[in-house]
Amino acid sequence: MAMAKGQLFLVLISFSSLVYPSQSRLSYNYYSKSCPSFDKIIQETVTNKQITSPSTAAGTVRLFFHDCLVNGCDASILVSSTPFNSAERDADINLSLPGDAFDLVTRAKTALELSCPNTVSCADILAAATRDLVTMVGGPYYNVLLGRKDYRISKSSYVEGNLPRPTMPMSKIISMFAAKGFSVQEMVALSGAHTIGFSHCKEFKSNLYNDTHYNQRFAKALQNACADYPKNPTLSVFNDIMTPNKFDNVFFDNLGKGLGLLESDHGLYNDPMTNPFVKIYAKDENRFFKDFARAMEKLSVYGIKTGRRGEIRHRCDAIN
Ligand code: HEM
Hints:
Family: Belongs to the peroxidase family. Classical plant (class III) peroxidase subfamily.
Shape: globular
Number of strands: 2
Pfam families: peroxidase
Number of helices: 12
GO biological process, one term: response to oxidative stress
CATH architecture of the largest domain: Orthogonal Bundle
Distance between the termini: 53 Å
Order of helices and strands: HHHHHHHEHEHHHH
InterPro entries: Haem_peroxidase, Haem_peroxidase_sf, Peroxidase_pln, Peroxidases_AS, Peroxidases_heam-ligand_BS, Secretory_peroxidase
CATH topology of the largest domain: Peroxidase, domain 1
CATH class of the largest domain: Mainly Alpha
Bound molecules: protoporphyrin IX containing FE
Largest sheet: 2 strands, antiparallel
Structural class: mainly alpha
Helix content: 40-55%
Number of domains: 2
Keywords: Calcium, Disulfide bond, Heme, Hydrogen peroxide, Iron, Metal-binding, Oxidoreductase, Peroxidase, Secreted, Signal
Protein backbone atom coordinates (compact mmCIF):
# COMPACT_ATOMS: atom_id res chain seq x y z
CA MET A 1 0.00 0.00 0.00
CA ALA A 2 1.47 3.32 -1.02
CA MET A 3 2.16 5.80 1.78
CA ALA A 4 1.13 9.43 1.28
CA LYS A 5 4.03 11.87 0.97
CA GLY A 6 3.05 13.71 4.18
CA GLN A 7 2.88 10.48 6.17
CA LEU A 8 6.31 9.40 4.97
CA PHE A 9 7.72 12.77 6.01
CA LEU A 10 6.29 12.39 9.53
CA VAL A 11 7.67 8.87 9.85
CA LEU A 12 11.11 10.08 8.78
CA ILE A 13 11.06 12.94 11.27
CA SER A 14 10.07 10.77 14.21
CA PHE A 15 12.59 8.11 13.17
CA SER A 16 15.45 10.63 13.03
CA SER A 17 14.63 11.86 16.52
CA LEU A 18 14.82 8.25 17.73
CA VAL A 19 18.26 7.78 16.23
CA TYR A 20 19.93 10.74 17.96
CA PRO A 21 17.74 11.50 20.93
CA SER A 22 20.31 13.36 23.02
CA GLN A 23 22.02 15.19 20.15
CA SER A 24 18.95 16.30 18.28
CA ARG A 25 19.18 19.88 19.37
CA LEU A 26 22.94 20.30 19.15
CA SER A 27 24.71 22.14 16.37
CA TYR A 28 28.13 23.57 15.60
CA ASN A 29 26.76 27.11 15.29
CA TYR A 30 24.26 26.87 18.15
CA TYR A 31 25.02 30.39 19.42
CA SER A 32 25.40 32.12 16.04
CA LYS A 33 22.20 34.12 16.57
CA SER A 34 21.72 34.10 20.35
CA CYS A 35 25.35 34.86 21.25
CA PRO A 36 27.44 35.75 18.18
CA SER A 37 30.46 36.64 20.34
CA PHE A 38 30.60 33.13 21.91
CA ASP A 39 33.71 31.92 20.00
CA LYS A 40 35.55 35.19 20.43
CA ILE A 41 34.89 35.44 24.17
CA ILE A 42 35.99 31.84 24.76
CA GLN A 43 39.14 32.35 22.70
CA GLU A 44 40.08 35.60 24.44
CA THR A 45 39.46 34.21 27.92
CA VAL A 46 41.42 31.05 27.17
CA THR A 47 44.36 32.96 25.69
CA ASN A 48 44.62 35.41 28.60
CA LYS A 49 44.36 32.68 31.21
CA GLN A 50 46.79 30.27 29.55
CA ILE A 51 49.40 33.01 29.10
CA THR A 52 49.28 34.02 32.77
CA SER A 53 48.86 30.44 34.12
CA PRO A 54 50.39 27.89 31.72
CA SER A 55 49.14 24.91 33.72
CA THR A 56 45.55 25.85 32.81
CA ALA A 57 45.47 23.76 29.62
CA ALA A 58 46.24 20.43 31.29
CA GLY A 59 44.08 21.22 34.31
CA THR A 60 41.10 22.05 32.08
CA VAL A 61 41.46 18.94 29.92
CA ARG A 62 41.41 16.81 33.09
CA LEU A 63 38.49 18.79 34.53
CA PHE A 64 36.52 18.16 31.33
CA PHE A 65 37.40 14.46 31.31
CA HIS A 66 36.30 14.08 34.94
CA ASP A 67 33.07 15.96 34.23
CA CYS A 68 32.20 13.85 31.19
CA LEU A 69 32.89 10.40 32.58
CA VAL A 70 30.64 10.93 35.59
CA ASN A 71 27.12 11.09 34.20
CA GLY A 72 28.03 13.08 31.09
CA CYS A 73 29.52 16.42 30.03
CA ASP A 74 27.00 18.47 31.97
CA ALA A 75 29.12 20.82 34.11
CA SER A 76 28.15 18.93 37.26
CA ILE A 77 31.85 18.95 38.24
CA LEU A 78 31.73 22.76 38.61
CA VAL A 79 29.06 22.85 41.30
CA SER A 80 30.17 23.69 44.85
CA SER A 81 29.02 21.64 47.82
CA THR A 82 26.44 23.06 50.19
CA PRO A 83 25.57 22.07 53.78
CA PHE A 84 22.92 19.80 52.22
CA ASN A 85 24.85 18.33 49.32
CA SER A 86 28.36 16.97 48.86
CA ALA A 87 29.05 17.75 45.18
CA GLU A 88 31.09 15.85 42.57
CA ARG A 89 34.12 18.10 42.87
CA ASP A 90 34.51 17.11 46.54
CA ALA A 91 34.95 13.40 45.77
CA ASP A 92 38.53 12.52 46.77
CA ILE A 93 39.70 11.84 43.18
CA ASN A 94 38.59 15.35 42.16
CA LEU A 95 40.28 17.25 44.98
CA SER A 96 43.47 17.62 42.94
CA LEU A 97 41.66 19.31 40.04
CA PRO A 98 43.36 22.71 39.85
CA GLY A 99 41.69 25.99 40.76
CA ASP A 100 42.95 27.60 37.53
CA ALA A 101 40.70 25.36 35.44
CA PHE A 102 37.60 26.27 37.49
CA ASP A 103 38.67 29.92 37.38
CA LEU A 104 38.89 29.84 33.58
CA VAL A 105 35.26 28.73 33.29
CA THR A 106 34.14 31.37 35.80
CA ARG A 107 35.88 34.09 33.79
CA ALA A 108 34.38 32.97 30.50
CA LYS A 109 30.93 32.69 32.08
CA THR A 110 31.18 36.20 33.55
CA ALA A 111 32.15 37.68 30.19
CA LEU A 112 29.41 35.72 28.38
CA GLU A 113 26.72 36.73 30.88
CA LEU A 114 27.58 40.38 30.17
CA SER A 115 27.29 39.91 26.40
CA CYS A 116 24.42 37.41 26.24
CA PRO A 117 22.70 36.87 29.61
CA ASN A 118 21.10 33.48 30.40
CA THR A 119 22.12 32.00 27.10
CA VAL A 120 25.34 29.97 27.25
CA SER A 121 25.62 26.82 29.36
CA CYS A 122 28.62 26.13 31.57
CA ALA A 123 28.88 22.71 29.93
CA ASP A 124 29.36 24.30 26.49
CA ILE A 125 31.91 26.74 27.90
CA LEU A 126 33.97 23.87 29.34
CA ALA A 127 33.77 21.82 26.12
CA ALA A 128 34.78 24.71 23.83
CA ALA A 129 37.49 26.03 26.17
CA THR A 130 39.03 22.55 26.42
CA ARG A 131 39.22 22.29 22.63
CA ASP A 132 40.77 25.75 22.30
CA LEU A 133 43.36 24.97 24.98
CA VAL A 134 44.35 21.65 23.36
CA THR A 135 44.90 23.53 20.10
CA MET A 136 46.77 26.34 21.83
CA VAL A 137 49.39 23.99 23.30
CA GLY A 138 49.99 22.29 19.96
CA GLY A 139 47.30 19.61 19.78
CA PRO A 140 44.76 18.99 17.03
CA TYR A 141 41.69 21.15 16.38
CA TYR A 142 38.37 19.32 16.44
CA ASN A 143 34.74 20.38 16.11
CA VAL A 144 32.60 20.69 19.22
CA LEU A 145 28.84 20.41 18.95
CA LEU A 146 27.08 23.00 21.12
CA GLY A 147 23.75 23.16 22.90
CA ARG A 148 24.45 21.13 26.04
CA LYS A 149 22.51 22.07 29.14
CA ASP A 150 23.84 22.13 32.71
CA TYR A 151 22.62 19.37 34.98
CA ARG A 152 20.74 20.15 38.18
CA ILE A 153 22.34 17.32 40.14
CA SER A 154 25.94 16.94 41.31
CA LYS A 155 26.78 14.33 43.93
CA SER A 156 30.16 13.15 45.15
CA SER A 157 28.65 9.69 45.65
CA TYR A 158 28.21 9.32 41.85
CA VAL A 159 31.93 9.53 41.20
CA GLU A 160 33.35 6.26 42.55
CA GLY A 161 33.58 3.57 39.90
CA ASN A 162 33.29 6.02 37.01
CA LEU A 163 36.82 7.42 36.89
CA PRO A 164 40.02 5.43 36.37
CA ARG A 165 42.71 5.27 39.03
CA PRO A 166 46.38 4.69 38.25
CA THR A 167 46.44 1.60 40.48
CA MET A 168 43.67 -0.15 38.51
CA PRO A 169 44.71 -3.05 36.29
CA MET A 170 44.48 -2.19 32.59
CA SER A 171 41.65 -4.72 32.15
CA LYS A 172 39.58 -2.75 34.64
CA ILE A 173 40.35 0.58 32.96
CA ILE A 174 39.43 -0.93 29.58
CA SER A 175 36.10 -2.22 30.89
CA MET A 176 35.32 1.11 32.57
CA PHE A 177 35.69 2.91 29.23
CA ALA A 178 33.90 0.10 27.37
CA ALA A 179 30.90 0.47 29.67
CA LYS A 180 30.65 4.06 28.40
CA GLY A 181 30.99 3.07 24.76
CA PHE A 182 34.70 3.80 24.25
CA SER A 183 36.92 1.27 22.48
CA VAL A 184 40.41 0.28 23.59
CA GLN A 185 41.84 2.41 20.82
CA GLU A 186 39.80 5.44 21.87
CA MET A 187 40.87 4.96 25.49
CA VAL A 188 44.55 4.83 24.50
CA ALA A 189 44.19 7.86 22.24
CA LEU A 190 42.45 9.85 25.00
CA SER A 191 45.16 8.84 27.48
CA GLY A 192 47.57 10.66 25.19
CA ALA A 193 46.32 13.76 27.04
CA HIS A 194 49.06 12.83 29.54
CA THR A 195 51.43 14.49 27.05
CA ILE A 196 50.76 17.64 29.09
CA GLY A 197 50.36 18.41 32.77
CA PHE A 198 51.63 16.77 35.91
CA SER A 199 50.87 14.27 38.64
CA HIS A 200 51.32 14.64 42.38
CA CYS A 201 53.89 12.37 44.02
CA LYS A 202 51.20 10.53 45.94
CA GLU A 203 49.87 9.12 42.63
CA PHE A 204 53.04 7.15 41.82
CA LYS A 205 55.37 7.33 44.86
CA SER A 206 54.68 3.82 46.12
CA ASN A 207 55.79 2.25 42.80
CA LEU A 208 59.19 3.89 42.61
CA TYR A 209 60.99 1.26 44.68
CA ASN A 210 59.46 -1.97 43.38
CA ASP A 211 58.07 -1.37 39.87
CA THR A 212 60.56 -2.82 37.37
CA HIS A 213 58.95 -1.05 34.41
CA TYR A 214 60.68 2.24 35.19
CA ASN A 215 63.96 3.17 33.60
CA GLN A 216 66.31 2.94 36.60
CA ARG A 217 67.76 6.45 36.32
CA PHE A 218 64.27 7.88 35.92
CA ALA A 219 63.07 6.02 39.04
CA LYS A 220 66.01 7.45 41.04
CA ALA A 221 65.28 10.98 39.77
CA LEU A 222 61.63 10.57 40.77
CA GLN A 223 62.60 9.29 44.22
CA ASN A 224 64.65 12.47 44.67
CA ALA A 225 61.95 14.74 43.30
CA CYS A 226 59.42 13.24 45.70
CA ALA A 227 61.74 12.87 48.72
CA ASP A 228 60.03 15.69 50.63
CA TYR A 229 56.57 14.52 49.67
CA PRO A 230 55.38 13.63 53.18
CA LYS A 231 56.17 17.20 54.30
CA ASN A 232 55.07 18.82 51.06
CA PRO A 233 52.08 17.04 49.47
CA THR A 234 51.95 19.59 46.62
CA LEU A 235 55.13 18.17 45.06
CA SER A 236 54.44 16.97 41.53
CA VAL A 237 56.20 15.82 38.36
CA PHE A 238 55.44 16.33 34.65
CA ASN A 239 53.52 13.48 33.03
CA ASP A 240 55.71 13.76 29.91
CA ILE A 241 59.21 14.57 31.12
CA MET A 242 60.59 15.11 27.61
CA THR A 243 58.19 17.76 26.26
CA PRO A 244 55.93 18.60 29.24
CA ASN A 245 54.21 21.68 27.85
CA LYS A 246 53.75 20.58 24.28
CA PHE A 247 50.85 18.50 23.07
CA ASP A 248 52.61 15.87 20.96
CA ASN A 249 53.07 12.09 20.73
CA VAL A 250 56.24 11.94 22.84
CA PHE A 251 54.25 10.62 25.81
CA PHE A 252 53.76 7.36 23.86
CA ASP A 253 57.41 7.16 22.89
CA ASN A 254 58.39 7.59 26.56
CA LEU A 255 56.34 4.56 27.58
CA GLY A 256 58.52 2.08 25.69
CA LYS A 257 61.60 3.56 27.36
CA GLY A 258 60.37 3.17 30.93
CA LEU A 259 59.72 6.90 31.17
CA GLY A 260 56.04 6.66 31.96
CA LEU A 261 55.03 8.25 35.25
CA LEU A 262 51.87 6.53 36.48
CA GLU A 263 51.41 2.79 36.91
CA SER A 264 48.50 3.02 34.44
CA ASP A 265 50.81 4.73 31.90
CA HIS A 266 53.17 1.73 32.15
CA GLY A 267 50.11 -0.48 31.85
CA LEU A 268 49.28 1.05 28.44
CA TYR A 269 52.61 -0.24 27.17
CA ASN A 270 52.62 -3.59 28.96
CA ASP A 271 49.09 -4.78 28.28
CA PRO A 272 48.80 -6.70 24.99
CA MET A 273 45.42 -5.06 24.28
CA THR A 274 46.75 -1.51 24.45
CA ASN A 275 50.40 -1.96 23.40
CA PRO A 276 49.76 -2.00 19.61
CA PHE A 277 48.08 1.42 19.77
CA VAL A 278 50.85 2.86 21.94
CA LYS A 279 53.37 1.73 19.32
CA ILE A 280 51.36 3.20 16.44
CA TYR A 281 50.95 6.56 18.19
CA ALA A 282 54.64 6.67 19.23
CA LYS A 283 55.62 6.37 15.56
CA ASP A 284 52.90 8.43 13.92
CA GLU A 285 51.88 11.75 15.45
CA ASN A 286 49.36 12.48 12.69
CA ARG A 287 47.54 9.25 13.46
CA PHE A 288 47.53 10.09 17.19
CA PHE A 289 46.16 13.58 16.50
CA LYS A 290 43.46 12.20 14.19
CA ASP A 291 42.34 9.55 16.69
CA PHE A 292 42.60 11.88 19.68
CA ALA A 293 40.51 14.56 17.93
CA ARG A 294 37.84 12.03 16.97
CA ALA A 295 37.74 10.53 20.48
CA MET A 296 37.51 13.98 22.09
CA GLU A 297 34.62 14.88 19.80
CA LYS A 298 32.90 11.70 20.94
CA LEU A 299 33.73 12.30 24.61
CA SER A 300 32.39 15.84 24.39
CA VAL A 301 28.85 14.64 23.64
CA TYR A 302 28.90 11.75 26.10
CA GLY A 303 25.81 11.74 28.32
CA ILE A 304 24.91 15.33 27.59
CA LYS A 305 21.57 16.84 28.54
CA THR A 306 19.53 18.89 26.10
CA GLY A 307 16.18 20.67 26.25
CA ARG A 308 14.35 20.48 29.54
CA ARG A 309 16.67 17.81 30.97
CA GLY A 310 18.99 20.62 32.03
CA GLU A 311 19.27 24.34 32.61
CA ILE A 312 21.46 27.34 31.82
CA ARG A 313 23.08 28.08 35.14
CA HIS A 314 23.54 31.72 36.12
CA ARG A 315 26.72 30.81 37.98
CA CYS A 316 28.63 27.69 37.05
CA ASP A 317 29.29 26.77 40.67
CA ALA A 318 25.66 26.86 41.83
CA ILE A 319 22.51 25.11 40.63
CA ASN A 320 19.82 27.75 39.92
C1 HEM B 1 43.30 5.89 31.38
C2 HEM B 1 43.21 6.13 32.64
C3 HEM B 1 43.67 7.38 33.35
C4 HEM B 1 44.17 7.42 34.61
C5 HEM B 1 44.36 6.25 35.56
C6 HEM B 1 44.49 8.80 34.89
C7 HEM B 1 45.00 9.26 36.09
C8 HEM B 1 45.54 10.52 36.28
C9 HEM B 1 46.19 10.96 37.48
C10 HEM B 1 46.35 10.16 38.75
C11 HEM B 1 46.65 12.22 37.25
C12 HEM B 1 47.41 13.10 38.23
C13 HEM B 1 46.50 14.11 38.89
C14 HEM B 1 47.20 14.94 39.94
O1 HEM B 1 48.04 14.42 40.66
O2 HEM B 1 46.86 16.15 40.04
C15 HEM B 1 46.27 12.58 35.91
C16 HEM B 1 46.56 13.78 35.31
C17 HEM B 1 46.04 14.18 34.11
N1 HEM B 1 45.14 13.46 33.34
FE1 HEM B 1 44.69 11.50 33.53
N2 HEM B 1 44.18 9.57 33.80
C18 HEM B 1 43.65 8.74 32.83
C19 HEM B 1 43.16 9.14 31.61
C20 HEM B 1 43.06 10.45 31.21
C21 HEM B 1 42.30 10.92 30.07
C22 HEM B 1 41.45 10.03 29.16
C23 HEM B 1 42.48 12.26 29.99
C24 HEM B 1 41.88 13.29 29.05
C25 HEM B 1 41.22 13.05 27.96
C26 HEM B 1 43.38 12.64 31.07
C27 HEM B 1 43.88 13.89 31.28
C28 HEM B 1 44.80 14.21 32.26
C29 HEM B 1 45.54 15.47 32.29
C30 HEM B 1 45.52 16.57 31.25
C31 HEM B 1 46.31 15.44 33.47
C32 HEM B 1 47.22 16.55 33.98
C33 HEM B 1 46.41 17.42 34.94
C34 HEM B 1 47.13 18.65 35.47
O3 HEM B 1 48.26 18.91 35.07
O4 HEM B 1 46.52 19.37 36.28
N3 HEM B 1 43.68 11.51 31.80
N4 HEM B 1 45.58 11.54 35.33
